[in-house]
Design brief:
Elements (H helix, E strand, L loop, with lengths): L1 H17 L9 H17 L5 E12 L9 E13 L2 E7 L9 E5 L5 E4 L2 H4 L6 H6 L15
Antiparallel strand pairs: 1-2, 2-3, 2-4, 4-5
């Protein structure tokens, strides 16, 4: 009896380790609405006007990653913020699979949501909002004034 219980516990442990996500990889059609919402909300954090997703192509959904508790999503996109007569665009045209756009995970009540893992948020440049607000041409590269 004790042997059977040990086998059961061992079997369940292996099942948990092999299939931690508890579900199959989501499809592009399942991820796209969640990614569209995520991109709109991310741009909306720095936009007081209207935000639109002008272009979105999911190029790959990676394999489940335990450290992210989800699947990395690779995509090209363009998101525009319109504030009065001015606008700004946030885009990614990188089709490589070296840097993911977000991670998608299953929600408890069904469906999917996209997010950026906390360890990546902590790496973001805390001065990015101030730098983006500077007038064009304010920041020059260190060797801009050097003669060659």
């Amino acid at each position: 009896m004790a042997y059977a219980a040990r086998l059961l516990v061992l079997g369940l442990s292996v099942l948990l380790l092999v299939g931690c996500s508890g579900s199959k990889k989501p499809t592009v059609a399942e991820v796209e609405p969640a990614l569209r919402t995520f991109l709109t909300m991310e741009k909306g954090r720095s936009c007081a006007g209207s935000v639109t997703v002008d272009h979105l192509t999911i190029t790959k959904i990676g394999e489940y990653e335990e450290k992210y508790v989800g699947w990395p999503v690779y995509a090209t996109f363009a998101v525009t913020c319109v504030e009065g007569s001015s606008f700004s665009t946030w885009s990614n045209d990188d089709t490589s699979t070296t840097s993911f756009t977000s991670v998608v995970r299953e929600k408890l009540n069904g469906g999917y949501e996209c997010y950026i893992p906390e360890q990546y948020r902590q790496r973001e440049n805390p001065l990015a909002p101030q730098i983006e607000a500077l007038p064009p041409g304010t920041i020059q590269s260190p060797d801009a004034g050097r003669r060659r």
